[in-house]
Design a protein that fits this description.
Elements (H helix, E strand, L loop, with lengths): L10 H11 L4 H15 L3 E2 H8 L3 H13 L3 E3 L17 E4 L5 E7 L3 E7 L5 E8 L6 H18 L7 E8 L23 H9 L3 E5 H11 L9 E6 L3 E7 L2 E2 L31 H4 L1 H12 L8 H6 L3 H25 L3 E5 L7 H14 L9 E4 L6 H11 L2 H6 L3
Helix pairs in contact: 1-2, 2-4, 3-4, 5-6, 7-13, 11-12
Bound molecules: zinc ion.
């Protein structure tokens, strides 16, 4: 169920990288190899583990026996696949014990905070969202996130020592040093380092990324993009952003700011954007921009929350504005298709719920403007994870280091 293609970075690359970050003895490195293989692909048998890890049959058996006794690995129920049978006995599939450790995800949008406690394979065992005015209230927002995390651990009876860490994402550009590139986007957060603040409030080691990057990680590992290593996730919510996965890795750029397609220039001398430029994609294609256009035209208050009702009612004006937004987004994505030659574009965020009404114009515009030979190679789909993509992706950053953390635990 959790199989994923291992192109791009090889198994040995990943094990080597993890082993270098924390020097290990031979037994720990063996444990790391087995745990990494089971993290990559649940339901792997001992003979398959031997093939994937390069360890001898005896070593695999000994390591697995120790880790089953320690509660890190478990034998799956059910029959093994026929091809796994050897010498008349089925090869028992093995998986990580999904409740051996957890990671917390915290998704901070413009108007909500969502917290999920995820097991080792990234499935939420506790998931709650609370509405909160975020942009002008950083400390209240961070306090709320910390309260939700506390509740999650308490209600699931998970002690802190079983939590590998906290992955947080936020609706703002995030620099590699953990500061926000939020001037004008979330003005109340200037000078605040949300990761450090969350660490102080929760006692958990925290990592912070941009929300579209978090969505990309989740759709790549658990969702629509799980069988591809070259994909773009585009998040269409209050803001517009993209997360780019190239050769299996999230592309962050030199300072962590890659993928901010909402701030591509698309209209000469267009409306002023909150980033400080003019004519950005966000100013013509975000739900806020769509609602503003309709409000100006109809002379009555329209908010982004009204859009689903207007679109469901087949309001001609709303459909036309959505189609134009799809074309503007499609032109920006056509540039990404030409530059990165992705196999898949995954549409996420609030506007993804409009389905083909938005995806259709996006697909059509990409076909018209991207490099013609790259067009047949890209599939454009809506995300599979819906509004849980960001919080699960944030937690997945912590879980990516789970094999190393568990290998040196005991
Ligand atoms: Zn902008």
């Amino acid at each position: 169920m959790y199989n994923r293609r291992l192109a791009g970075q090889t198994f040995c690359d990943r094990v080597e990288e993890l082993a270098v970050t924390a020097p290990m003895n031979l037994r720990e490195e063996g444990r790391l190899r087995v745990l990494q293989a089971l993290y990559d692909s649940a339901g792997t048998s001992r003979p398959e583990l031997g093939r994937v890890t390069g360890l001898s049959r005896a070593t695999v058996s000994s390591l697995v026996a120790d880790m089953i006794a320690a509660g890190l690995v478990c034998e799956d129920n059910g029959l093994a696949e026929p091809e796994n049978r050897s010498m008349g006995r089925p090869a028992q599939p093995l998986s990580l014990n999904r409740s051996a450790a957890y990671a917390v995800g915290a998704d901070i949008g413009h108007t909500h905070v969502r917290v999920a406690l995820c097991d080792l394979y990234g499935s939420p065992v506790w998931d709650q969202v609370e509405m909160q005015e975020v942009d002008g209230a950083p400390h209240e927002t961070l306090d709320l996130a910390a309260d939700l995390i506390e509740r999650a651990l308490r209600e699931c009876f998970v002690p802190r020592e079983r939590v590998l860490g906290l992955g947080a994402d936020i609706a703002s550009p995030v620099r590699s040093d953990g500061s926000l590139g939020a001037d004008g986007i979330m003005p109340g957060w200037a000078g605040i380092r949300p990761g450090a603040e969350l660490e102080r409030r929760t006692g958990l080691a925290a990592q912070l990324i941009n929300d579209a990057n978090a969505g990309a990680l989740a759709e790549h590992r658990y969702g629509a993009g799980r069988d591809t290593d070259d994909m773009v996730y585009v998040r269409l919510s209050a803001g517009i952003g993209a997360g780019i996965v190239a050769a299996g890795r999230l592309l962050l750029g030199t300072g962590g700011l890659a993928g901010e397609i909402g701030h591509l220039h698309v209209v000469q001398a267009g409306p002023a954007c909150r980033c400080g430029n003019r004519g950005c994609l966000e100013t013509v294609a975000s739900p806020v921009a769509i609602a503003r256009l309709l409000q100006d035209s109809w002379g009555q208050p329209i908010t982004p929350d009204d859009l689903p009702r207007l679109l469901a009612g087949n309001s001609a004006g709303a459909l036309r504005v959505l189609e134009d937004a799809g074309e503007a987004i499609g032109r920006a994505l056509a540039g990404l298709v030409t530059l990165f030659n992705p196999q898949m574009i995954v549409i996420g965020g609030d506007l993804a719920a409009t389905g083909e009404r938005l995806a259709g114009p996006i697909r059509h515009t990409i076909a018209r403007h991207a490099l013609p030979s790259a067009v047949p190679q890209v599939t454009i789909v809506t995300g599979e994870l819906g509004s849980s993509a960001e919080v699960r992706g944030a937690a997945s950053r912590v879980l990516a280091h789970a094999p190393r953390s568990l290998a040196i635990m005991g």
